[in-house]
Design a protein that fits this description.
Blueprint lengths: L12 E5 L7 E2 L3 E16 L9 E15 L4 H7 L3 E4 L2 E4 L6 E9 L5 E11 L15 E7 L8 E4 L3
Antiparallel strand pairs: 1-2, 1-7, 3-4, 4-9, 5-6, 7-8, 8-9, 8-10
Length: 161
């Protein structure tokens, strides 16, 4: 039988450090929460003498973080759009600059303490479509893809106090 207290319910805060050497900034409210998606592609190792693979090997891995930012500030638009540059109150789009950033997600674990995801290196990788409609909020869709730096692509830490 399972343990009900280990079922996690709730949201996480999404924080971005851009540039990587800077400080984390909370991106504010989200629409529909934040999704972390880890994927793996494996290759099957087959031999002539067996009808089933004798093992599998990891060929590629990916880690993506997606969210819809409810606060459509220039700072949030800048981190969502890979080829943009923010200078003061002007966002220039189409500069061809791929910004690297760090991502931190902080939620709660089953004990009520922080569960923290740290992604030390990522880039914006998704398409950004921002609808402007009468009597509706405009959200900024973001997709970040972890890239390999000198550390693991991500760590997840459960606080115990």
């Amino acid at each position: 039988m399972g343990t009900a207290s280990k079922v996690l319910v709730g949201v996480v805060t999404l924080e971005i450090k851009c540039p990587i050497g800077g400080t984390y900034r909370n991106v504010g409210y989200t629409e529909d929460g934040v999704t972390v998606d880890y994927g793996v592609t494996k290759v099957e190792i087959n031999v002539e003498e067996e009808t089933y693979p004798i093992r599998q090997a990891i060929q590629t891995e990916s880690l993506k973080v997606t969210a819809n930012l409810a606060e459509s500030s220039l700072a949030n638009m800048s981190i969502a759009m890979a080829g943009s540059v923010l200078a003061g109150n002007v966002l220039s789009i189409g500069s061809g600059v791929d910004k690297e950033m760090a991502i931190r997600l902080v939620g709660k674990n089953e004990l009520g303490y922080d569960k923290t995801w740290e992604i030390p290196q990522a880039v914006a990788s998704g398409s950004v479509g921002m609808p402007y409609r009468k009597n509706e909020k405009t959200v900024v869709p973001v997709e970040f893809t972890a890239i390999k730096g000198s550390e693991a692509i991500a760590t997840v830490t459960d606080s115990t106090s």
